[in-house]
Amino acid sequence: MLKKVYGSAVFGVEATTITCEVNVDTGVGYHLVGLPDNAIKESNYRIAAALLNNGYRIPGKKITLNLAPADLRKEGSAYDLTLALGILSASGQIKSENIEKYIIMGELSLDGSLQPIKGALPIAIKAQEEGFEGFILPKVNAKEAAIVSDLKVYGVENISEVIAFFDKGQALEQTIIDTREEFYRSLDFPEFDFSDVKGQESIKRCMEIAAAGGHNIILIGPPGAGKTMLAKRLPSILPPMTMHEALETTKIHSVVGKIKNMGLMSQRPFRAPHHTISDVALVGGGAYPQPGEISLSHNGVLFLDELPEFKRSVLEVMRQPLEDREVTISRARFTVTYPSSFMLVASMNPSPGGYFNDPDAPVTSSPAEMQRYLSKISGPLLDRIDLHIEVTPVPFEKLSEDRKGESSVEIRKRVTAAREVQTKRFNGLDNVHYNAQMNTKQIREFCKLDGASKELLKNAMERLNLSARAYDRILKVARTIADLDKAADISGNHIAEAIQYRSLDREGWLG
Ligand SMILES: Nc1ncnc2c1ncn2[C@@H]1O[C@H](COP(=O)(O)OP(=O)(O)O)[C@@H](O)[C@H]1O
Ligand SMILES: [Mg+2]
């Protein structure tokens, strides 16, 4: 008998329905065809054991399993459940009316329990689009699939439940979540809040500017100064994600199987990969492409702690995606694109020993060591970082104060207001939504200075020996400061503040 059951394959962040045709006939043999990878080829061992342990078996007949479309490469172990149900159904061991109305996926353990799958959300989106009635999958992935409306989502723990559902009509518990309600409820409760940070008012101000204009930022300070603590809190002051952004971000995390028992992500992601990270892990790739850290940070923050410690090649491969806001990975048979629009926060010690120009420092570095350390970050990547700020540790008395700082939700209100001004400003322009994205032409148009401000900037550039590349960055940042100030025009005050955030352009640093 021939039966069809349905599974799904994920490419990039989109899914394609896979038809599993199962034919059981007289004779002997077990043939799995249609470009399966090794994990799928091994599925027969898992299926055999899982069926035996639940009172069923792979019949001693000629079994042909075909995964279609045949030209699409299928990977992973998530077709175990699909194929197992197909075998039971085609060999007449269970009734299987309406089985073709479901997408059925899950990896089997030998006892028949189900292991999580990757990409449940894109699979559910595709299933709904193609008019499937339901999606049966491992329970841990049910919530992320249940984001999709108009699709019945059944999270199961063991193959026995799925068998009972089709064979005996025993109901499965449907996973229903109120996506909107959950989404909006969690918006005002950031995991990490700026109110936990004592003192550091000027740094918080700088991070507010970064958030308001979408400016990449580098924090320079000795160990223990609070750099990591501050960086972690940046997502909490960015404007709340829209439903659309949340869906995009959740999809990417779903594809790598990073979502467990959770629906739509409502908080912007914060990713902090270690400096030993490989190129592939950072930007994505691999034989079966997977998104990297820059895509897991999509719509959120990528924190590169101790920037000069990263391999140069790693920083190089990040340049293009940083510009394009997406990364494309090409393979012989296909190409996938992952979005990667993130804010970059970097940190560094002022010197390889951790300190700079500090007579009390426990370790000091020679000028040659300093030069080598700093040269690793100079150039193209640094060119994309608008704000440099020095973080000095807050004194002990400040740390022990009880007074709470301003909350992230309060700061976020000002950031959101400034973003709205920018949305209006760039209305109708394709590639620019906030100030940090302005190109040279747009800077000339939107960051006009009056005579006095021009003079101020010129003098400062000479006095502080600022490089030419600093000029455009100061203008962009000044535009954001003016937006936070609700000012139509950039004034001298705005310029003066923006100039302060160029520490690395000054002499003694990168020169
Ligand atoms: N301004 C601050 N307010 C409250 N705690 C702070 C502050 N600065 C540092 N800390 C404490 O010191 C710890 C170390 O800070 P961390 O962010 O890891 O420093 P860094 O990344 O610069 O080495 C933090 O976990 C936090 O408990
Ligand atoms: Mg740190």
Produce the secondary structure layout.
Blueprint: E1 2-11, E2 14-25, E3 29-33, H1 38-41, H2 43-52, E4 62-68, H3 80-90, E5 102-104, E6 107-108, E7 114-115, H4 120-129, E8 134-138, H5 142-145, E9 152-156, H6 159-168, H7 179-186, H8 201-213, E10 217-220, H9 227-232, H10 243-255, E11 270-271, H11 279-283, E12 284-285, E13 290-291, H12 293-296, E14 301-304, H13 312-324, E15 326-330, E16 335-339, E17 343-348, H14 367-375, E18 387-390, H15 396-399, H16 408-425, H17 440-446, H18 451-463, H19 468-484, H20 492-500
Parallel strand pairs: 3-4, 5-8, 8-9, 10-17, 10-18, 11-14, 14-17
Antiparallel strand pairs: 1-2, 2-4, 6-7, 12-13, 15-16
Helix pairs in contact: 2-3, 8-16, 8-19, 18-20, 19-20
Low-confidence stretches: none
The proportion of strand residues reads 15-25%
Largest sheet: 5 strands, parallel
The name of the CATH topology of the domain at 2-177 is Ribosomal Protein S5, domain 2
Number of continuous helical runs: 20
Describe the protein's architecture and organization.
The chain has 511 residues and is an alpha/beta fold. It has a domain at 2-177: Ribosomal Protein S5, domain 2 (2-Layer Sandwich). It is 37% helix and 17% strand. The protein contains 20 helices and 18 strands. The chain has helices at residues 38-41, 43-52, 80-90, 120-129, 142-145, 159-168, 179-186, 201-213, 227-232, 243-255, 279-283, 293-296, 312-324, 367-375, 396-399, 408-425, 440-446, 451-463, 468-484, 492-500, and strands at residues 2-11, 14-25, 29-33, 62-68, 102-104, 107-108, 114-115, 134-138, 152-156, 217-220, 270-271, 284-285, 290-291, 301-304, 326-330, 335-339, 343-348, 387-390. The strands form six sheets. It has a five-stranded parallel beta sheet with strand order 11-14-17-10-18. A four-stranded mixed beta sheet has the order 1-2-4-3. It has a three-stranded parallel beta sheet with strand order 5-8-9, sandwiched between helices. β8 (134-138), α5 and β9 form a beta-alpha-beta unit. α19 packs across α20. The chain is elongated, with a radius of gyration of 28 Å. It starts with a strand and ends in an 11-residue tail after the last helix. The mean pLDDT is 91. It binds adenosine-5'-diphosphate and magnesium ion (MG). The site of adenosine-5'-diphosphate (ADP) has 14 residues, from α9. Pfam families: ChlI (PF13541), Mg_chelatase (PF01078), Mg_chelatase_C (PF13335). InterPro entries: AAA+_ATPase, CHLI-like, MCM_dom, Mg_chelat-rel, Mg_chelat-rel_C, Mg_chelatse_chII-like_cat_dom, P-loop_NTPase, Ribosomal_Su5_D2-typ_SF. GO terms for molecular function: ATP binding; DNA binding. This is Magnesium chelatase family protein. Keywords: ATP-binding, Nucleotide-binding.
